[in-house]
Design a protein that fits this description.
It comes from Strombidium inclinatum. InterPro entries: Papain-like_cys_pep_sf, Pept_cys_AS, Peptidase_C1A, Peptidase_C1A_C, Peptidase_C1A_papain-like. About 40% of the residues lie in helices and about 0% in strands. α1 packs across α2 and α1 packs across α3. With about 120 residues, the chain is mostly helical. It has a single domain, classed as Cysteine proteinases (Cathepsin B, Chain A). The longest helix is centred in the N-terminal third of the chain and has 18 residues.
Length: about 120
Amino acid sequence: GAVAYVKDQGSCGSCWSFSATGALEGEHFLTNKKMEIFSEQELLDCDSSLFTNHGCNGGLMDYAFEYAMENKMTRESEYPYEEDDSGACRASKHEGVFSIGGYKDVKAGSEQDLLEALAV
């Protein structure tokens, strides 16, 4: 229920956007009891210009989460994946369906950090 279908990033180095949308989709499901599939392409086009991710040349989930704190995420059906980062941002921060209030990084190997993150 809380995990979307398997997706394919193709030859674009956009793993950061797929991992971020996967986490956001899971959070949305756990919060709203409804599965939504969010747009990786939105992050490629929009997060690259607003924050410091680099589209198909890599990025960080943290920056994608920062984007999702300031913008509502668009459904993949409305902003499909193109395996390319040369497009201009077509998302509207007011027309998306889900944003987050924050996120927590878990230090590798830290059970305490993991417990604290899960308790939130």
